[in-house]
Amino acid sequence: MSLAAPLWRWTAALLAPVLRLHLRRRAARGKEIPERIPERFGHGAARPPGRLLWLHAASVGETLSILPLLGPLAARDPGLSVLVTTGTVTSATLLARRIPPGLAGRVLHRFVPLDVPRWVARFLDGWRPDAAVFVESELWPNLIAAAARRGVPLCLVNARMSVRSARWWARAPGFARGVLARFRLVLAQSEADAARLRALGAAATCPGNLKYAAPPLPADGADLARLRALTAGRPIWLAASTHPGEEAVAIAAHRRLAALHPGLLTVIVPRHPDRGPEVAALAGDLPVARRAEGREPDPDVALYVADTLGELGLFYRVAAVAFIGGSLVPHGGQNPLEPARLGCPVLAGPHTWNFAEIVARLEAAGGLTRVVPGEDPAGALAEAVSAMLTSPGRGQGQAGAALRVAADEAGLPDRVAEAILALLPAPPADAVGAGGCVAAAPETSGPPVSRKVDGSD
User: Fold this and answer.
1) Quick one: three-class SS letters along 20-50?
2) Residues near 46 by Cβ (< 8 Å), separated by ≥ 6?
3) Which of 103, 203, 271, 424 has its CA 20 to 30 A from that of 175?
4) From CA 63, how far away is CA 86, in angstroms rounded?
5) Taking the complete model, does pTM exceed 0.70, yes or no?
6) What pLDDT does 454 receive?
7) Cα separation of 143 and 322, whole Å?
8) Tens digit of pLDDT for each residue in 395-426?
9) Is 62 labeled as catalytic in the residue annotation?
């Protein structure tokens, strides 16, 4: 038996006071919602009647991955309620905005409890899920072990295991097997991920990547019309979901491009909107405006910092080309399928391991251009952007190729939903109507977020 599991459990229990302080500090920085911190201690259960499926998605990317599952799950089981837990405020906000109106009463949200044994136990005792689905690489040992001990069937969907993470888990092979073997169903997002997961003890298969099945990012129609009117005739390029170090490169690239492309508008969308003031400060003497301050990209604005949440779909629709952030710095890249679905040509740097299989397919199809920074990252980025701005036909051809790749796996959410529902226990006899359908759980009023709960832990 591996000693890592009890060591993790004891360490988490001992760290509980420190974690409380950590949460308060996060709340002071806007990283937690103060009145909802008790959810991190397992409080706030409000289990609806009927069968309950628990979906856990860490942050924005994982939340976007499960959105395509909600419709098929609800359609196949009309009596099913879904609890979605996340770990970030941005993912909770995104979920509240993106849940289809017809499902709002059946999809609840809570922040996931931290992996402290008594907090995990309180959460599971309160919600009593009939099955649990973890997304991508969310492997919290205490949470997983406690759910398994209660007989909750576990599933890992769109599972991802990077080379670096696999090496880390391989240092404690018994611990890795003990965690992964608890999952009855492991559906990897690529064959390479499946192979690494199998090497660590998971019974993994690869049905496909749910990221291919996500719907296009939304955009408010009125905002889109206004933005197009304000920027009509201007060449526009977008640096999307950028990380520290990339904004300075994008701004330096703008300075090189401006002389070649009169009226150029550079839009930067930082991955974390709270970095908006920091990004704007990098502009120096360039005319800059921040969306979070209510400013618009007027004709005299050269650099527009879109430091708001959930509006990438708006800017992908107006940009002639988009650079995907997290790829010029060693972060691993963000999702290149988001611009591809909207017909926006895609540029990416060398660091794309978070989406290695997707990037490889896009490159093979001619749907993505690599930016090789070398000793002059700004020059390399400017050259790639300029090539798209000066050759609209090239950009359209690349966008078409990317769109065809993004359209793959259209039926995957239905297949994954069926596999997940097979893990659920049969509904009680009194929940089945005369027509054989499961009776729908009563809808709850209000948004799919927690009401205030008692602050004790």
Assistant:
1) HHHHHHHHHCCCCCHHHHHHHHCCCCCCCCC
2) 108, 444, 450, 451
3) 424
4) 8
5) yes
6) 35
7) 39
8) 889 989 998 888 877 789 999 999 999 999 87
9) yes
- In this structure, are residues 205 and 197 in contact, taking their beta carbons and an 8 Å threshold? no
User: Residue 64 corresponds to which tokens in the numbers above?
Assistant: 């976007």
Which residues is 133 bridged to in the sheet?
A: 55, 155
Query: 439 with 431: CB under 8 angstroms?
Result: yes
C-alpha 145, offset from chain centre: 25
CB neighbours (10 Å) of residue 332?
16
Find the distance separating the first CA and the last CA of the chain, reported in whole Å: 32
Question: What is the residue-averaged pLDDT of the chain?
Answer: 91
Question: CB–CB of 146/125 below 8 Å?
Answer: no
Residues in Cβ contact with 149 at an 8 Å cutoff, skipping those fewer than 6 apart: none
> What domains, with CATH codes, occur in the chain?
4-209+410-431 (3.40.50.11720), 221-406 (3.40.50.2000)
Q: Do the bridges between strand 81-86 and strand 321-324 make them parallel or antiparallel, or are there none, so unpaired?
A: unpaired
Catalytic residue, chosen from 39, 62, 247, 338, is 62
Q: What is the CA radius of gyration of the chain?
A: 23
